[in-house]
Specification:
five-stranded antiparallel β-sheet; alpha+beta
Amino acid sequence: MNSASNCTAVALPSRRRVRGSILINTAIAMSLIVITLVGTELGYLFYMKREFQKTADLAALAGAQKLTPVAGTDVCIAARGAAAANASQNMPGLVLQQPECGHWASSNTTPTIPATSCFKDTDDHFLPNASTKNAIRVRIEKAPPTLLPFFEANRTICVQAVAALNEPIGSISVGSGVARLNEGLLNQLLSMLLGTSVSLSLADYTGLLNTKLNLLGIMDALRLNVGTYAQLADANVSLAQLLNAAIQALPQSNDSNTVDLAARVLNGLLTLSGGLRLEDISINLLKTAQQAGLLSVDLNTTDPRAALNGNVNALNLLLVALQVADSQSAIATQVEVPLQPLANVKLQAKVIETPSIAIGPPGYYPDGTAKTQAHTGQIRVLLDTKVLTPLGGKNDLVNINLLLLSIRLSMPAGQLVNLPVYVEVASGDAALATVRCNAPDGKYDVQIDAAPGLAHIFLGKVPTAFTNRTSPWASLPKERFSLVSLEAEIKILGLSAVKAPVDLRAKLDLSIPGSGTVTRSSLNYRYDPTIPASQQNLTQTVGTEQNLGAAIASAINAGKLDVELDTSGLTLLGLDAGFLSDILDTLVNGLIGIVNGVLGVLNVVLTPVLSLLDTALLAPLLKALGIQLGYADVQLLSASCDGNARLVY
């Protein structure tokens, strides 16, 4: 039997052929390669844009450093050259478009740019070719070398940078009470402001004057957030907090001896007893149209911290802060000064608008507004003067004898004459015009434009003297006062029909300067940053000093005293005698004879009293406040020129 026939056949599974397409894989791979290449190109373009921007920034900063004015040179040529050289150094082979010199300020409106320019959407507040050049603009418009030759998209990169030279900063004051470094007057002023006795030495005051305080350092010590002007306007601190912050800021700009002296004096004022509680009295830091405050700062600056990065001296800061805090009450109330035996004067004075320290950059805006401007404090003074006329017989002023009627008008002796004097010293102003920092000797040349305020004087009654804060001088209600009491005697047919007193009423209204106009003057200073302020001549006077008593006496002698005879009270046998008043008013012929006769008697006692007003009473008070009639003291507190530039766009 064949064994082969007994074998069973086993069927094996067939192998299926797997089919696929390389096109899909190739497409995916190519897509990834393209994405990688495009991404690399875009990354390279972003990298180059960053490099271009860095180059533009550095070039603009280098150019702005050359914008400091130098006599006889074109600063723009030097600035452009420095910018181009810096750009080629940082990016070899790069040729800048012509850099532009101009003026940058946050208030500037950028000129319209043609729609074809790749810079059409920029708003950099830069004015090219302005007369005042403080900035340079660098623009780069360039397509960098390509990594992919077949990449045909628009590869032009447009970048620009604007760098501005840091503006000099100055701080000024006008009539703020420190113009006259006088130990006695300043002690008097501090005693009035603090409500207690102060007896600092002249060395103490000189030390405070030489002590520099950085306002930004004070703000930081107070831990105030003053990033915007709204925040600065809302900032309110107590006087104790302000003085403590000033003490903390002392070491920033002063040597150890100055710090020790100033800290001792300020700490002594903080611990005075019997006067104001400084921790309970608060002041606003920013002076605005709506509020009294410590500082006047350039309101057009976008960053108030930049304007605050300047120095003031400790004495000005102290005096102005105290006057701001005390502005709602009378500086001196009911101060009586006996001028025996003929007169007595009662004085009341009130600060209406406090002085302020102004700090900021020099110059003016296009509308003529000064960037940095300070105002004197406006004060009102009321003097109630009582003068005793000479003793003796009657002085006949009018003696008329007619056929049926005789009239005699005489001035009784030994009268007590009330002479009310109201004075309003309006605020003067000073504006920081220029600060030039390039003198060969290292000093700064500073110009301040200043004008004294008008002084108004009124002999008479002003009912709203200490309540009005809004009405101008011309709108204030003013009334005559009873200058002296006269005696009228009228005889009819030789018989006495009337024998009664009548009033001589008067008023005197004048302004200093008399024309009612004020002329602005330019004051020039040379500031040496290496020498203490007390050793430099940093105070100048604008206008001409006027003495109150002398001004009144001169006006009276010039016939400016407006008088009238009040005969309304005359009676005949108990009945109204208006017809006698008409007769008397007609016969006195404009009062010329009466006025001359009265003044002839009164001048004997008025002249010395008016002179004493200047020397013994009003002048010391006004000088302590830094305010005088017809002139203003203008002081440069400090100036700073760092010469650095900053990127502003």
